[in-house]
């Protein structure tokens, strides 16, 4: 079998590369092709744990699911998780490697590129066809000599390239034509098409624009993808801005998610968007009219906890608790709800002890540079009024630190988490909690009852991510020259 692959580069960050790769993976799967996604380097705080306990970017996990294959560390061999102060944690082949400043990171370009290539070829040997995703904008000329996600990788792989541009941002001609013309000659020669993404309105109105792009470059525009809200987990924090712009539909319940500086895995809460208005609130914002509060995960619990305290958020939190508003702490948010956090220097860079919000009698310690990464399924211990509606839940843990419960606190789930005596404050390390239909039903039915309303999940929404894949690939096949795409792959 001849192996063929395709690389999707972007004119900028958030151009929609991940969505396009997901669509191609699902299209190939539907047509009987064996394929796998690959992104050599990803910078994201939204991550996922594979079945063997490895951590990768959530976008590559979703793309693997679209392709009908099990997510694996080789699909995202280098994951960068920003910690602040120009420092990121490198997750290498699914395991924590080191914390590193950006200037020092570039010193490891050669080694990291070889690791990425080894991963790519292992996927190629196993699956044949690979859909490769670049990172950010491909035409960052000052980075060409160290760009292992775009230029250096494209030079080594020497495979066909499609460039994606985001027309919603404006300047689509500069995006696509400029990116194409600025690519090095040995990369530009492999460009076979453009995709215009996030178009609002009638695509026929852009026919002249397509002609201009094709005349200026000699490269075919493969199609114009409409802007659509497909319920796939968001890849990074830029997606929060989209939520603020486009999520204006009135719903009977308001859930506030604290918008931490280093928020991570906020994709945890996206399943709730179908039934509640999800508000990403800055600590200084008003929390008065929310019906439930979520303290999300964070890449740096101590830094974000200090910021919340300085803002006076702790007073707002106690007011909500006094009003019997349900509060969920997920991962780092769980740690913040506790009495104290002791850090040997792993989390904050130097040894320190900091008081938490003291809502739950918990003690968290950061003693070693090691991370818990595991897929889990846990039985609820049935505390009224919310956990009693849940039998068990599955998810995954990704966290530094270990948490011990004090005498006055009981576990929320068997062997994990914590819940207050009145059952209204729930802490857990489980990411993906709200991907469980029964958990969504438990929370939303309680919140709806407080409004005198009935709650039920619509039958049409029970297919979850598979339904989202179907909607995405239907839009892709209606809008894009899929024959031109399929020509770059072999069964």
What does this structure look like?
This protein folds into two domains: 6-231 and 467-486, P-loop containing nucleotide triphosphate hydrolases (Rossmann fold, 3-Layer(aba) Sandwich), CATH 3.40.50; 238-459, Rossmann fold (3-Layer(aba) Sandwich). It is of the alpha/beta class and 491 residues long. Strands 2-9-1-10-11-12 form a six-stranded parallel beta sheet, sandwiched between helices. It has a six-stranded mixed beta sheet with strand order 15-13-16-18-26-25. A four-stranded mixed beta sheet has the order 3-6-7-8. The protein is 30% helix and 25% strand. Helix 6 packs parallel to helix 8 (207-217).
- Extended strand count: 26
Please, what is the average pLDDT? 92
Which band does the percent of strand residues land in? 25-35%
Main sheet overview? 6 strands, parallel
* Coarse shape: globular
Question: What is the fold-level CATH name, i.e. the topology of the largest domain?
Answer: Rossmann fold
Biggest sheet strand order reads 2-9-1-10-11-12
GO molecular function: ABC-type vitamin B12 transporter activity; catalytic activity
Family: Belongs to the CobB/CobQ family. CobQ subfamily.
GO biological process, one term: cobalamin biosynthetic process
Keywords: Cobalamin biosynthesis, Glutamine amidotransferase
């Amino acid at each position: 079998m001849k192996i063929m692959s395709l690389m999707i580069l972007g004119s900028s960050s958030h151009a929609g590369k991940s969505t396009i790769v997901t669509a191609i993976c699902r299209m190939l799967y539907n047509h009987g092709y064996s394929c796998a996604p690959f992104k050599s380097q990803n910078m994201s705080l939204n991550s996922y744990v594979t079945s063997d306990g490895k951590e990768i970017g959530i976008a590559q996990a979703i793309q693997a699911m679209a392709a009908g294959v099990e997510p694996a560390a080789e699909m995202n061999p280098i994951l960068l998780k920003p910690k602040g102060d120009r420092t990121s944690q490198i997750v290498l082949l699914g395991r924590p490697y080191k914390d590193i400043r950006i200037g020092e990171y570039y010193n490891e370009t050669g080694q990291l590129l070889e690791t990425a290539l080894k991963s790519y070829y292992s996927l190629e040997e196993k699956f044949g066809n690979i859909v490769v995703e670049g990172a950010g904008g491909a035409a960052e000329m000052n980075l060409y000599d160290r760009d292992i996600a775009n230029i250096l990788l494209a030079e080594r792989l020497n495979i066909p390239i499609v460039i994606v541009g985001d027309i919603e941002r404006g300047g689509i001609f500069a995006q696509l034509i400029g990116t194409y013309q600025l690519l090095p000659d040995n990369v530009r020669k492999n460009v076979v098409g453009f995709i215009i993404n996030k178009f609002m309105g009638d695509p026929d109105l852009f026919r002249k624009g397509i002609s201009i792009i094709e005349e200026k470059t000699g490269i075919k525009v493969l199609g114009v993808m409409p802007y659509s809200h497909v319920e796939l987990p968001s890849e990074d924090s830029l997606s929060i801005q989209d939520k603020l712009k486009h999520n204006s539909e009135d719903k009977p319940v308001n859930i506030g998610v604290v918008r931490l500086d280093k928020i991570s895995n906020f994709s945890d809460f996206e399943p709730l968007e179908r039934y509640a208005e999800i508000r990403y609130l800055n600590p200084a914002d008003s929390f008065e009219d929310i019906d439930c509060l979520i303290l999300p995960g964070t890449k740096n619990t101590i830094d974000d906890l200090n910021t919340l305290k300085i803002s006076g958020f702790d007073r707002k939190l106690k007011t909500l608790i006094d009003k019997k508003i349900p509060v969920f702490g997920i991962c780092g948010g769980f740690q913040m709800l506790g009495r104290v956090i002791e850090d040997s220097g792993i989390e904050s860079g130097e040894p320190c002890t900091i008081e938490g919000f003291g809502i739950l009698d918990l003690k968290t310690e950061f003693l070693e540079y090691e991370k818990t990464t595991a897929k889990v399924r846990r039985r609820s211990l049935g505390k009224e009024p919310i956990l009693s509606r849940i039998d068990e839940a599955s998810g995954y843990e990704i966290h530094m630190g270990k948490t011990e419960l004090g005498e006055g606190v009981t576990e929320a789930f068997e062997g994990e988490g914590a819940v207050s005596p009145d059952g209204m404050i729930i802490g857990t390390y489980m990411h993906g909690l709200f991907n469980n239909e029964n958990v969504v039903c438990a929370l939303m039915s309680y919140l709806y009852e407080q409004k005198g309303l009935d709650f039920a999940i619509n039958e049409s929404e029970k297919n979850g991510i598979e339904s989202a894949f179907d909607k995405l690939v239907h839009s892709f096949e209606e809008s894009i020259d899929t024959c031109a795409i399929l020509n770059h792959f072999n069964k």
